[in-house]
């Protein structure tokens, strides 16, 4: 039996980095807000998928020293995470990133969400039907206890997969399977190995031997490890092909294969290293992600489509609500990234129109499913930029709901 009808000013679909920022911003501006999330915690790629760095927080600079690109919520999260981990920004090649720990991110998100009286979180809840009403939106939600209904004045789709567009059957685009960014599979390992440059080379060489011996899946050739900042804990990251031409990030059979392949290859790789490398002796997989990290799927078609050319030239807009500062990180194969930097490292503006679905009212989008082409999406999908677009969507939704 359905639960009684509920009503809110703003409903946010998806509690990843963008949805978290959107829900908190809307609630802080006085909107009665409901955050709807399938997992049992917020954070998305940074918690469920164990992605352990916040990318896109900082301007691209030749000079040393990280400079925050988007003030506001990005700065708040930066301060909280640095206090939790004791680690500040790190330079990797030409980019600055902030190491983060998924356990701390989930805790920080809980603390922030609990602090807002006008915000209600519905974890373990999924949107299954949506329709436009004269005064907003009617949502049908699936929970462990059955179905419930929710009416919202304004909607924010921060689902990553443009779920609202998918349910409506219109208003979205998706790249061909062969061009979609390949997924990441991140897992935790208990290990005392030294991960300095010589240690990384020895580990990589040993994995090559394991693949040649037929004991480790070939996918492990791209496996990389990074210390988590906690004693004896490292994160392993695999890029998976997802089935090449058949890759479909929205198909449950494809996703099932991704999860099983990630676990198999990770377990084989760690077992091989533990048996043959002294530094890895006694190592074991400590935890699996709740889900593989999907980098690209459906994208909304908005009032403006941010393009690869605009990212490359660092175009600015009169109605921009955030800056995109991460290079276009193309991972169209499982062989590692190709980075395309903008001219003179110039940031690109993200106009509010990219957050406004074409021809639709009382809805905004945030995160990796905003209106952008395939190349631009390779930049704006990172968590630092998603925090910023989420904050902007939450502000716009609260204003649209008439509460600020």
Structure description:
The protein is α+β, with helices and mostly antiparallel strands and 404 residues long. Helix content is 29%, strand content 25%. Strands 1, 2, 6, 7, 8, 9 and 20 form a seven-stranded mixed sheet that branches. Strands 12-13-11-14 form a four-stranded antiparallel sheet, with helices on one face. The protein has a three-stranded antiparallel sheet with strand order 3-5-4. A hairpin with a 5-residue loop joins strand 12 (224-227) and strand 13 (233-239). It is globular, with a radius of gyration of 21 Å. The two termini are 36 Å apart.
Strand content: 25-35%
Output the helix-strand order.
EHEEHEEHEEEEHEEHEEHEEHEEEEEHH
Largest sheet: 7 strands, mixed
Distance between the termini: 36 Å
Annotation, overall tally of beta strands: 20
Overall average residue pLDDT: 95
Helical fraction = 25-40%
Distinct helical segment count: 9
Estimated structural class: alpha+beta
Shape: globular
Q: How would you briefly describe this protein structure?
A:
With 404 residues, the chain is α+β, with helices and mostly antiparallel strands. The chain contains nine helices and 20 strands.
Question: Can you lay out the helices and strands and say which pair or pack?
Answer:
Blueprint: E1 3-13, H1 17-28, E2 33-36, E3 53-54, H2 73-85, E4 90-92, E5 95-99, H3 102-114, E6 119-122, E7 125-133, E8 136-143, E9 146-157, H4 163-168, E10 172-173, E11 184-190, H5 197-212, E12 224-227, E13 233-239, H6 252-276, E14 284-287, E15 299-300, H7 308-313, E16 320-324, E17 328-330, E18 338-340, E19 348-351, E20 363-365, H8 374-380, H9 383-400
Parallel strand pairs: 1-2, 1-9, 2-6, 9-20
Antiparallel strand pairs: 3-5, 4-5, 7-8, 8-9, 10-15, 11-13, 11-14, 12-13, 16-19, 17-18
Helix pairs in contact: 1-9, 5-6
């Amino acid at each position: 039996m359905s639960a009684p009808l509920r009503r809110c000013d703003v409903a946010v679909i998806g509690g990843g980095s963008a949805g978290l920022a959107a829900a908190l911003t809307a609630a802080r501006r006085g909107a009665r807000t409901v955050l709807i999330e399938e997992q049992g915690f917020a954070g998305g790629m940074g918690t469920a998928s164990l992605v352990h760095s916040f990318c896109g927080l900082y301007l691209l600079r030749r000079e040393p020293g990280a400079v925050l690109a988007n003030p506001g919520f990005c700065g708040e999260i930066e301060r909280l995470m640095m206090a939790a981990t004791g680690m500040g920004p790190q330079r990797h090649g030409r980019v600055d990133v902030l190491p983060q720990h998924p356990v701390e991110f989930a805790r920080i998100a809980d603390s922030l969400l609990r602090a807002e009286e006008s915000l209600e979180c519905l974890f373990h809840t999924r949107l299954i039907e949506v329709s436009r009403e004269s005064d907003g939106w009617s949502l049908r939600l699936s929970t462990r206890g059955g179905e419930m209904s929710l009416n919202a004045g304004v909607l924010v789709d921060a689902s990553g997969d443009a779920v609202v567009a998918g349910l409506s059957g219109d208003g979205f685009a998706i790249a061909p399977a062969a061009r979609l960014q390949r997924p990441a599979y991140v897992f935790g390992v208990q290990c005392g190995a030294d991960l300095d440059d010589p240690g990384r080379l020895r580990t990589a060489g040993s994995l090559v031997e394991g693949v040649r011996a037929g004991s480790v899946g070939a996918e492990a050739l791209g496996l990389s490890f990074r210390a988590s900042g906690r004693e004896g804990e490292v994160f392993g990251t695999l890029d998976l092909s997802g089935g090449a031409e058949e890759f479909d990030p929205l198909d449950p059979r494809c996703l099932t294969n991704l999860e099983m392949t990630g676990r198999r290859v990770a377990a084989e790789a760690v077992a091989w290293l533990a048996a043959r490398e002294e530094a890895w002796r006694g190592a074991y997989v400590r935890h699996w992600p709740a889900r593989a990290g999907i980098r690209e799927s459906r994208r909304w078609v908005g009032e403006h489509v941010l393009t690869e050319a605009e990212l490359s030239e660092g175009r600015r807009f009169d109605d921009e609500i955030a800056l995109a500062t991460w290079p276009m990180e193309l991972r169209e194969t499982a062989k590692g990234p190709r980075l395309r930097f903008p001219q003179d490292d110039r940031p690109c503006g993200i106009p509010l129109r990219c957050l406004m679905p074409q021809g639709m009212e009382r809805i905004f989008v945030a995160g990796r499913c905003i209106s952008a082409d395939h190349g631009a999406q390779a930049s704006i999908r990172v968590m630092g930029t998603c925090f910023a677009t989420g904050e902007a969507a939450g502000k716009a939704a609260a204003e649209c709901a008439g509460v600020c």
